[in-house]
Amino acid sequence: MRWWVAVAWIDQLLREGARRVDEVEVFFAKGIAVSADLKRKNINIATRSDECGLGIRTIDKGRIGSSSTHNPKKWKECLNAAIASGKLATPQRWDGLPEPVARDHEEICHDPLLTVDPETATGLLGQMLEGASQHPVQVTSGSATLSVGTDIIVNSCSVRYTSRHTGVSISLESIKDQSTGTEFAQSCFMDIDPFAVGERAAFLASHSSGGQEIPSGDYDVLLSPLAYTELLGAAFIPALNGRNVHVGRSLLAKKSGESIMDSRLSMYDDPFRQKGLGSTFWDAEGMPTKRIDFVRDGVLLSFAYDLRTAYRYGKESTASAIRGGGSAGTAIGHHNFIIDGPRTGVADERVIYVNGVVGAHTANPMSGDFSVELSNAFWMEDGEFQAPIRSAMLAGNVFAMHKDIGGISDEMRQIGSMILPSIRLQGQRVIGK
C-alpha cells in the first residue's frame, strides 16, 4: 500500500491521459544498485546509484505515441510529449491494450536475502581474487554489482501490476604474457560462486599462453555457452522476430512447419523458469506470458510478437515485449531463451573447444554467414583441456550449423536472457596457419 501512495501521481497521469486520448500505458521502474571495482588487485570503494525511469505510451485512433524521462516529477511534460509524438505517427490497426488477468504473484526474480551494500560487493571481489590466485596470472580488472528494484505497469484498461527483482553480477579479467582470460556470473539470487569465477578467468589466461598453430581445415568444434550465445544473438534469434519476418528480413519467414535443424534440438522461451533472469508473469506491455515453442524437435513452429506487430499483421501477441529499463521503449525479445535436447558426452572425443568468439556482431543476420576469431580455444579430449590453440578463425553459417550437430552438453549456463548448453558442431571450417 505504501508503494502505491508513493506513486499516486500515476493515477493522476492515467486520468489526464484518458481525458485526451483513447488509451494510456505507463511503465515505471525504480531501484538502487551498489557497485565495486578492481584495478589490478586494488578494490575501489563501492558506489551506490539510484535508478529511476518512466515510460509513457498513448494510443489515439490507431496513432501510437511514446515518451520517457528519468524524472517522474515531470510526468505531465512526458505525457504531453507522448501525445504530440502520436499525432505525427502513421495510424495502424489497433485492437486495444490488454485487460488484467489473475496470475500467480510469486516473485520468481527476487531474493529477500540479497543485501545491497558495499561490504557484500567488496566481499565478492575478494573471493574472486582468491580464486584467481590459483594460477600464475596478473589480475587486470573486475567488478561486482548488486541491485534491487521494483517495476510497475499500469494502463487505462485497469492493468495494475507490480514486481520486485534483485540482481548480482560479477566479472574478472586476468592476463599472462599476451593471453587474457575473462569470466563472469549473473543471477537474481545470491547463488553465484565468486571463487569459481576468479579461478576460471585465471585458468583461461594461464592455459591460453603459448598456443599452438593449427592448419586450416574442417574440424569438430565445441562452442561454450558463451560462444554459442554470441552467434545465436547475432543472426539466429533476429530471424525469429515477427517484425523481421513480415518485412522480409528473416531467412525463416516462409519455413513455418518445416524442419530447419537437427531433430534432436528444441528452442523455446520459458518465462516461468525459477531463477531465470528474465522470468516474469507478464511482458512489458502487460500481456500475460506463456511458454513459446519456437522450434520443437527441429521443426519451426512460432515467431515472437509484441502487440504492435501482432495487430499490424493480423497475428496474436506472444507476450514477447521487453524493455531495457523504465525509460526505454518496448521491443520484441524473449524472457528466458532455452535450447534443449538429449545430452551427450560432447567432449569425450577430440574436439576444438571455443570459449569465446570475437566479431560475432559482423555476422549477416539475413543469410546467417559469419567469420569470427576464436578466443581461448583449446584442444579437448576425454573432457579435459589439452594444448591451447593460437589465433584462428571459424567461418560458417548459423542456420546450417544446426542441421547436423554432434550433441549438446549436460551443462546449462545462464547468460543474460539465454540459458544454453555447449554444442558440438561437426565438420566446421577453421582457418588457421
Number of domains: 2
Radius of gyration: 23 Å
Q: Which sequence of SSEs, written as H and E, runs from N to C?
A: HHEEEEHHEEEHEHHEEEHEEEEEEEEEEE
User: Which residues sit in consecutive blocks of at least 5 with pLDDT less than 50?
Assistant: none
Mean pLDDT: 94
Query: What is the count of DSSP helices, taking H or I runs of 4+ residues?
Result: 8
Name the structural class.
alpha+beta
End-to-end Cα distance: 66 Å
The tally of beta strands, per DSSP, is 22
Main sheet summary: 7 strands, antiparallel
**Structural shape:** globular
Helix share bin: 10-25%
Strand content: 35-45%
What does this protein structure show overall?
It is globular and about 70 Å long. It folds into 2 domains: 203 residues, PmbA/TldD fold (2-Layer Sandwich); 222 residues, no CATH class. A hairpin with a 2-residue loop joins β1 and β2. The strands form 4 sheets. Strands 1, 2, 3, 4, 5, 6 and 7 form a 7-stranded antiparallel β-sheet that branches. Strands 11-10-9-14-21-20 form a 6-stranded mixed β-sheet, covered by helices on one side. Strands 8-15-16-18-22 form a 5-stranded mixed beta barrel. Helices cover 19% and strands 38% of the residues. It is α+β, with helices and mostly antiparallel strands and 433 residues long. The longest helix is centred in the first third of the chain and has 15 residues. α2 runs parallel beside α3 and α4 packs parallel to α5. The chain contains 8 helices and 22 strands.
